[in-house]
Amino acid sequence: MRTGVVVGLAALVAMGLGACAPEDSPSGSSTPSGADACAKDKLAVKTTGTLTVGTDKPAYEPWFSDNNPSNGKGYESAVTYAVAKKLGFDQAQVKWLTVQFNTAFAPGTKAFDLDVNQVSISEERRKAVDFSSGYYDVRQTVITTAGSKIANAKSVAELADAKLGAQVGTTSYTALRDQVKPKQTPAVFDTNDLAVQALKNKQIDGIVVDLPTAFYMTAAQLDNGKIVGQLPSSGTTEQFGFVLAKGSKLTGCVTQAVDALKSDGTLANLQKQYLTESGAPELS
């Protein structure tokens, strides 16, 4: 999935990408054999000495900053440079290409070594491309408008009395039902747009959506929209992964780098810096 914070992404939200089935084992992610299999001079990159990375344009907050992937700011830009460093490339050796979201994981030859663009790992997409292991577990999130009865909630328990809604058949609805467990029957909507309209009309107090969609809705679809907070992680989650060409010799090495960044706490720290502290607090 890829959702952003401007109206230009409405088509993606309308396609229901937030309801992608979760996947948890990337294609081609086995650990490379040999101690130096992932040494910089052994990597099968497009251009010697350069790591070529694709992403869409515009590049949206909070995944990128100032529509400039190369500045190292924003969660996905920072993670990309951290992976590049693990592979032996410094910031000046990373080259960015503009790659439209849908073409990143479409069948065919790729001009990039890897693509980073809030692309959810899915079995269907694996038929055409490889994925690294997940660099971000998509979290379910509660949104509202400023001044609502839940606008200042700090815990899941404080949501119990609220009238909340979600799109039917989504992981967001499941989280609303099973994690929030509201006293009032959840409102169910055929689309997220209908849920937004209900929130605008004050028919509901808040909506449960995935975090990328939450950033989009609160910035582009709602006046005075506000992210109340992220629900605690629960069970298998949808993940974003780096996209690589099908059968890429780099897949295992990129996965190894992502896993190392997860193990040493780098991913958690970057999520805190660019997501939690950018208006998406954790609900207790």
From TrEMBL:
<keyword id="KW-0732">Signal</keyword>
<dbReference type="GO" id="GO:0016020">
    <property type="term" value="C:membrane"/>
</dbReference>
<protein>
    <submittedName>
        <fullName>Polar amino acid transport system substrate-binding protein</fullName>
    </submittedName>
</protein>
<dbReference type="Pfam" id="PF00497">
    <property type="entry name" value="SBP_bac_3"/>
</dbReference>
<dbReference type="GO" id="GO:0015276">
    <property type="term" value="F:ligand-gated monoatomic ion channel activity"/>
</dbReference>
<feature type="domain" description="Solute-binding protein family 3/N-terminal">
    <location>
        <begin position="50"/>
        <end position="278"/>
    </location>
</feature>
<dbReference type="InterPro" id="IPR001638">
    <property type="entry name" value="Solute-binding_3/MltF_N"/>
</dbReference>
<dbReference type="InterPro" id="IPR001320">
    <property type="entry name" value="Iontro_rcpt_C"/>
</dbReference>
<feature type="signal peptide">
    <location>
        <begin position="1"/>
        <end position="21"/>
    </location>
</feature>
<feature type="domain" description="Ionotropic glutamate receptor C-terminal">
    <location>
        <begin position="50"/>
        <end position="277"/>
    </location>
</feature>
